[in-house]
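=== RUN LOG ===
request id: a7f3
mode: sequence -> structure
chains: 1
length: 79
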Amino acid sequence: MTEEIKPGDVIQLKSGGPLMTASSVGEAHMTGDMTVWCEWFDDKKQAQKGTFSLIAVKKVEPLESAPTPARRVKRIIKH
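=== RESULT ===
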């Protein structure tokens, strides 16, 4: 893995899915596998938590510069 994942990073499963925030990274007690504990909001805006193998996730850049819905509406109205 070229980029180390650390708590606070935005991650996603390599197979897709929602953007998640890594809350902890470490060795799972039962298996000894490197694991990432993460949190995210589902499509119903409900907070979710999950644990994934570190090899199953990738670090992604958050879309902080993406327009908010209000900004998109203003753009549409101007046109």
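=== NOTES ===
Residues 69-78 form the longest helix (10 residues).
DSSP finds one helix and five strands in the chain.
=== END ===
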